[in-house]
Specification:
It is found in: Membrane. With 793 residues, the chain is an alpha/beta fold. Helix content is 28%, strand content 15%. Among the domains are: 455-575, 2-Layer Sandwich (Phosphorylase Kinase, domain 1), CATH 3.30.200.20; 580-793, Transferase(Phosphotransferase), domain 1 (Orthogonal Bundle). It binds 2-acetamido-2-deoxy-beta-D-glucopyranose (6 copies).
């Protein structure tokens, strides 16, 4: 309806005058539609002014030939439905609604958008059955609706949408469908359907006809049966992920043909076979290999051979074969555990950082006396001990028990990987012999498991109940405790802080108190204990520990360990002897508007050094992962200094993630006044650019010695505004910290101020990235020898 009006206008105007006028007419109508939608969503996008042309500088919109062709509302803080006005945008090619609180059904008018090629509706709360209007988008190539609460069965017509190349439907746990039917979509390149429970229950052989398929992800799909031989024909595969299913059998020979494979992930299944050393040579691009928690046996190539022959450390991002039945010597030697896995690699700025890349234990290594204990729980799918496995399976060729509710496929043997089928799907005649074997083996291993638990209990002083309660079990299924951090007991922490005595308190935060303590080995640590009001869920806390344990950088305060028991959620960090930057700039009782400076002010080159260090820490956070880790609270009191006055960022993490999502119920601020990204008020979201803004404020503080918000300061209490005005009119001399005023590099500080003002630009598009910041600081610091700085103080 709306569409025909616009077309009629087009014809009419074309008849009278030049094409440009007619186009304006259409886009004006599109502007009205967009403005109406914005009003319904109750958000304010300032540039969307009624009566103006959306192609004339409206945000979040792209135009081609005077018509709106792209609308990108990702993370725009929208709550509500998709109004039918969307159907006015008939030239739309890209529609991105992702990561908002969109809900409800899609309007039929969406079918007017026949040119739509890219539709991204993921991470919203639609909570509807698969929308039938999608089926009418006959030019759609890219559909992303992951994590969006879709439910019910994928309609049969969906599989007939031949234009589709990229499908992301993962994490819609209420959705069902038929995996084999995707073979109808002959152009598929990406098929990401994890956590969907398909009714065919197996990896369909016919999927091998999808010759263009590059990415296949069906983890947690409740799949039974084996890896089809026919998949060797999927020679464009780059990523294959079927982790956490119930797959059995071996890895077919034909997989050697998958020479483009980079990421192969079959962990947490019941695959069985000799260790596939052939992958290292057959797949030259392989960089992530997860075959943990299966039943592989034999001896993997040793580490030194992998290094010399296959450039192990530079080639692999992830290499994991823990929890199999592998022989040979422990790859990391006796003491190492998984620790030879802590790789030091150079990051993007040439920093040497530590990353957990490899995990090889536990297994059945020759130089480990018995690994029964470590396999209990952690390798929980294993029903056999190492001895039993090698006696019965490898030597006597008896298949191990199938996963529950499955039976051994007729004719399957150890050499063919002991393929199992879902019960009922196989013509299982009579009583399968292996069920008996399985039962006997199962009973005897139950005895061994209990024995193991008793021994374990004695060793670790765990209570027997704790192990079964699964609540805080370090080895439970759901949580692979990071190997790089120590798990402290409440008793230990209470002892070194004299029962969390106030005399040990060194700081307070929104989350609780920070205590100092000295470990038995003499190291001092800072102990952050969450107060009752800020306890997180067990899962959230674990996620935080896992994330923090992966972040290793010389300019980030190091996580030493944690404690999670009863009402205790504690993070233990390295102790930073010289306190925080705020104290060094403003004195002991640094507060806004209160300055009592220390006797010796920070020399200017030290300030430069601190600025550089903080920038490196932030850049690491931003580039560490996708999505990036956002610090969210960069400010001098979160910049700590070690005994060499080296700066390290503290208080980064994910626990502050939620508050900004809903402005109406949010009580906690996302960040600290004076450092908070002004665009936050516009979009209600913090981004890496928000950290850059706060970093700019810190730079200004280093240059000026002025606090971020000071209500006593002249006419301007906001430091950014204050410095901007003065610097632009009277230069560096008008803002420099008087305590270094007669001894500083004018050039360096002018440059830093310019950088600071760019970082704290109002619009995030004008701010540099941390990478760009580093490129500017790099030559400035290159003139100074770090060693010289470290001798200071
Ligand atoms: C929408 O914008 C975001 C960043 O603002 C970008 O990452 C994303 O790729 C865009 N979506 C599409 C479909 O282009
Ligand atoms: C899966 O979806 C749920 C809710 O829909 C969400 O909380 C969770 O973060 C999603 N998981 C991933 C890995 O995207
Ligand atoms: C296909 O999927 C892979 C892995 O998820 C991703 O890296 C790639 O960008 C996707 N390609 C497109 C065009 O979506
Ligand atoms: C590693 O494997 C290679 C090749 O199989 C062998 O020559 C070498 O001796 C092994 N090294 C160690 C330390 O086991
Ligand atoms: C290993 O690295 C060296 C030097 O970087 C390179 O010449 C060689 O081709 C690499 N070998 C393999 C198998 O990737
Ligand atoms: C790994 O082992 C080395 C040497 O024993 C030790 O210095 C280091 O702290 C260990 N790393 C981790 C993360 O356990």
């Amino acid at each position: 309806m709306a569409r025909s009006r616009c077309t009629a206008g087009l014809v009419l105007v074309l008849a009278i005058t030049a094409a440009t006028l007619s186009l304006t007419f259409c886009s004006l109508e599109e502007g009205v539609a967009l403005h109406n939608m914005m009003t319904k969503w109750n958000v304010n996008i300032p540039s969307w002014t009624p009566g103006s042309d959306p192609c004339d500088g409206w945000e979040l919109i792209l135009c081609t030939n005077g018509r709106v062709t792209s609308l990108n509302l990702t993370l725009a803080g929208i709550s509500g439905e998709l109004p039918e006005e969307i159907g006015v945008l008939t030239e739309l090619e890209t529609l991105d609604l992702s990561e908002n609180d969109f809900r409800g059904s899609f309007p039929d008018s969406l079918a007017n958008c026949q040119k739509l090629r890219v539709l991204d509706v993921q991470e919203c709360n639609w909570n509807v059955p698969f929308p039938s209007v999608f089926l009418k988008l006959s030019n759609l190539e890219y559909l992303s609706a992951a994590s969006s609460g879709l439910s019910g069965r994928l309609p049969e017509e969906f599989y007939a949408m031949k234009s589709l190349k990229y499908i992301y439907l993962g994490n819609n746990t209420q959705l069902t469908g038929n995996l084999e039917s995707f073979t109808l979509m002959s152009n598929l390149v990406n098929l990401t359907v994890w956590s969907i429970k398909f009714d065919d229950y197996v990896l369909p052989e016919k999927l091998s006809t999808l010759k263009n398929l590059q990415y296949f992800n069906c983890h947690d799909c409740n799949l039974h049966g084996g890896l089809p031989e026919s998949y060797g024909d999927l020679t464009n595969l780059i990523e294959f992920n079927v982790r956490r299913n119930y797959l059995t059998g071996g890895i077919p020979e034909s997989f050697k043909k998958l020479t483009k494979m980079e990421n192969f992930r079959v962990d947490t299944n019941s695959l069985l076979g000799p260790f596939p050393n052939w992958m290292f040579s057959a797949w030259p691009k392989l960089s992530s290999l997860y075959i943990s928690r299966n039943q592989f046996y034999g001896t993997p190539y040793n580490i030194s051979y992998l290094e010399t022959r296959f450039n192990l450390t530079s080639r692999f991002k992830i290499l994991r074969w823990d929890c199999n039945y592998l022989e040979g010597n422990q790859p990391c030697g006796n003491a190492g555990g998984n620790n030879c896995s802590i790789e030091t690699v150079a990051n993007t700025v040439g920093e040497v950082v530590e990353i957990l890349k490899f995990a090889f234990n536990p297994n059945c290594y020759d130089d480990v006396p018995t690994d029964i204990i470590s396999q209990v729980g952690y390798c929980n799918a294993h029903t056999l001990t190492c001895d039993a496995f090698y006696n019965e399976v490898v030597n006597q060729k008896v298949c191990p028990a199938c996963p529950s509710s499955q039976t051994l496929a007729a004719g399957s043997t150890v050499d063919s990987g002991c393929l199992c089928h879902a019960k009922g799907s196989d013509s299982g005649s009579g009583f399968p012999v292996n069920a008996v074997v399985g039962l006997v083996v199962g009973l005897s291993s139950l005895f061994i498991i209990i024995l193991g638990l008793v021994i374990w209990k004695r060793r670790k002083h765990f209570s027997f109940f704790d192990i079964f309660s699964n609540k805080e079990d370090a080895f439970d299924e759901e949580w692979e405790m990071p190997a790089s951090v120590h798990r402290f007991s409440v008793e230990e922490l209470a002892r070194i802080t004299e029962d969390f005595n106030d005399s040990h308190i060194i700081g307070h935060g929104g989350f609780g108190k920070v205590y100092a303590g000295t470990l038995d080995d003499g190291r001092m640590v800072a102990i952050k204990r969450a107060s009752a009001g800020s306890l997180q869920g067990v899962k959230e806390f674990r996620n935080e520990v896992t994330l923090l344990s992966r972040l290793h950088h010389r300019h980030l305060v190091r996580l030493e360990g944690f404690c999670a028991e009863k009402e205790f959620q504690v993070l233990v960090y390295e102790f930073m002897k010289k306190g925080n930057l705020a104290t060094h700039l403003y004195g002991d009782h640094a507060k806004f508007g209160e300055k009592t400076k220390l006797g010796s002010p920070l020399p200017w080159y030290k300030r430069l050094e601190i600025a550089y260090g903080v920038a490196q820490g932030l850049e690491y956070l931003h580039s560490f992962a996708d999505p990036p880790v956002i610090h969210r609270d960069v400010k001098p009191s979160n910049i700590l200094l070690d005994e060499h006055m080296m700066a390290k960022l503290a208080d980064f993490g994910i626990s502050k993630e939620s508050p900004e999502l809903d402005t109406h119920i949010s009580t906690r601020p996302a960040g600290t006044a004076g450092y908070l990204d002004p665009e936050y008020f516009l979009r209600r979201q913090l981004t890496t650019a928000s950290d850059v803004y706060a970093y700019g404020v810190v730079l200004l503080e280093l240059v000026t010695g002025q606090v971020a918000i000071d209500h006593t300061r002249d006419d301007e209490y906001n430091l950014v505004e204050w410095a901007k005005k003065r610097f632009r009119t009277a230069g560096i001399i008008s803002i420099i910290d008087p305590s270094i005023a007669d001894d500083y590099s004018k050039d360096a500080f002018t440059q830093i101020t310019e950088l600071a003002l760019r970082c704290s630009s109002f619009s995030k598009n004008e701010r540099p990235t941390m990478k760009e910041v580093l490129a500017i600081l790099d030559p400035m610091t290159a003139n100074y020898d770090l060693g010289y700085f470290f001798e200071e103080k």
